[in-house]
């Protein structure tokens, strides 16, 4: 029997946050604004405060992003309902709200010596073009879509690290007859399923844990019988843990992936010399086997000015294995026509002709 319960905890700027569950199982929520269906969102985010209470596992939270076109300062009639219920308004959460545009997060680190720290990052974030190659967007518009080299994107084994509430990239790769091995220890359910998905509630770490809750990328590769596969694809969005996990990998394991797309985080930690040295090390390690071919600033995070040098604190990046390719200086201005803002609440971050920074 259905036991739909839910609650809106807060509305901050353009984000409606809360929780919803159906006798402990996953649900989707529809957002209506002024009686118009705006979006459908899964309630699968981990809520530690609800674990063992309304939900055994606590994976019942949601953050609903209100599109910028509704953030005009006028009062809106807002309704959050359980998707697929009869009648539609069963369990509805109805209120009025005046949505306003979000202000960008800006951080200033004025010390002059930090200019070298920022420039050392930017030099490693300078992309090159693939000679004779073209790029394509895979996944949805906005956060969760990635720019990839339009080459050998069918019939591949893919590793998707970090799922949260979005499987748009995974679904598109599945439509290309790829097998998707997914790992995320922060959710109890996938927001959507597909026969090509192989999901485990396992976190990614530099080394595997004895209790099986965390696993390293090389251990997963060997456990899945992919040790002889040298044309896999890696998608990684693990909220800052990418640096330690990639640093722990052998060069041969990195070289198994023909393309690596990922979100990188934490560049605002410019004062932490050891941390930044670790980031440089991973950049340099990747550059041995792979070439950076695309970069996009994540405008859902911080834009910082370090020592007078401006740059985002998080990026979406695309690496292509060097073997079998030639590369040339990129004269493109970033973001490109293929890019989409990670959020439409603030302007996309302009990077300019970052491919020329090392010329």
Would you spell out the secondary-structure blueprint of this structure?
Layout: E1 4-12, E2 15-22, E3 28-33, E4 36-42, E5 45-46, E6 59-65, E7 75-82, E8 93-98, E9 105-109, H1 114-124, E10 128-130, E11 135-138, E12 146-149, E13 157-161, H2 168-175, E14 179-183, E15 197-200, E16 203-204, E17 214-215, H3 217-223, E18 232-236, H4 242-247, H5 251-254, E19 257-264, H6 273-289, E20 290-297, E21 302-306, E22 309-312, E23 315-321, E24 327-329
Parallel strand pairs: 9-21, 13-14, 13-18, 14-15, 16-17, 18-19
Antiparallel strand pairs: 1-2, 2-6, 3-4, 3-7, 5-6, 7-8, 10-24, 11-12, 19-23, 20-23, 21-22
Helix content: 10-25%
Biggest sheet statistics: 7 strands, mixed
Strand element count: 24
Describe the strand arrangement of the main beta sheet, using strand numbers.
15-14-13-18-19-23-20
Strand proportion, as a percent range, falls in 35-45%
Structural class: alpha/beta
- Terminal Cα span: 65 Å
Work out the radius of gyration: 21 Å
Report the average pLDDT across residues.
90
Shape: globular
The ordered H/E elements are EEEEEEEEEHEEEEHEEEEHEHHEHEEEEE
SS summary, helix count: 6
- Pick out the low-confidence regions: 86-90
């Amino acid at each position: 029997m259905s036991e739909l319960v839910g609650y809106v905890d807060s509305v901050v700027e353009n984000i409606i946050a809360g929780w919803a569950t159906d006798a402990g199982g996953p649900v989707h929520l529809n957002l209506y604004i002024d009686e118009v269906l705006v979006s459908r969102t899964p309630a699968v985010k981990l809520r530690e405060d609800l674990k063992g209470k309304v939900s055994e596992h606590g994976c019942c939270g949601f953050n609903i992003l209100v599109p910028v076109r509704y953030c005009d300062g006028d009062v809106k009639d807002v309704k959050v309902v359980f998707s697929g219920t009869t009648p539609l308004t069963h369990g509805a959460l109805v209120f009025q709200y005046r949505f306003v545009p979000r202000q960008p997060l800006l951080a200033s680190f004025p010390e002059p010596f930090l200019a070298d720290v920022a420039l050392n990052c930017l030099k490693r974030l300078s992309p090159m073009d693939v000679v004779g190659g073209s790029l394509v967007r895979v996944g949805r518009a906005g956060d969760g879509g990635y720019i990839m080299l339009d080459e050998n994107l069918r019939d591949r084994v893919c590793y998707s690290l970090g799922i949260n509430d979005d499987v748009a990239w995974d679904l598109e790769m599945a439509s290309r007859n790829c097998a998707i091995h997914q790992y995320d220890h922060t959710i109890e359910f996938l927001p959507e399923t597909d026969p090509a998905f192989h999901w485990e509630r396992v976190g990614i770490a530099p080394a595997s844990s004895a209790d099986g809750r965390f696993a390293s990328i090389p251990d997963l590769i060997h456990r899945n019988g992919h040790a002889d596969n040298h044309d896999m694809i890696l998608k990684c969005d693990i909220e800052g843990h990418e640096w330690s996990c990639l640093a722990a990998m052998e060069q041969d394991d990195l070289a198994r992936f023909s393309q690596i797309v990922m979100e990188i985080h934490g560049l605002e930690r410019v004062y932490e010399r050891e941390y930044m040295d670790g980031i440089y090390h991973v950049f340099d390690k990747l550059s041995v086997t792979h070439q950076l071919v695309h970069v996009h600033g994540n405008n859902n995070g911080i834009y910082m000015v370090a020592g007078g040098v401006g740059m985002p604190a998080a990026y979406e990046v695309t690496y292509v294995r060097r073997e079998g390719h030639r590369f040339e200086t990129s004269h493109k201005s970033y973001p490109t026509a293929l890019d989409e803002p990670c959020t439409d609440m603030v302007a996309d971050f302009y990077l300019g002709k970052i491919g020329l920074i090392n010329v």
